[in-house]
Specification:
110 residues, 5 helices, 50% helix, 3-stranded parallel sheet
Length: 110
Amino acid sequence: MVSGPSNVSILIGVSGDKMLGLAGKIADGIILNSIGTEQYFNHAISVLNNSAREADRDTKSFEMSSSVIFSVADKHEDAIDAARHDILFYVLYPELDPVIEKTPYMQKVV
């Protein structure tokens, strides 16, 4: 049993600039998407930091993470095929357009 107040971090799963901005203003951290690239992550961190600065917040203790797509199978090709289905789901999901827009190799696929 916990006595007294608990300090629970609030992390927001984000993709687009508006939600990144909101997270910088009110959240304790973010969870970025698994199909992001270095270019997207750099952009997301920049938007987040700018928003936090505007809200007079410090991001030094800000928590950042990303989901990860992985697959395990006896055959390498089977593992790739299984992961391919998850990646296709993300590519087709409109919420992730901001990630794809900042991902050069994804623009060629879509």
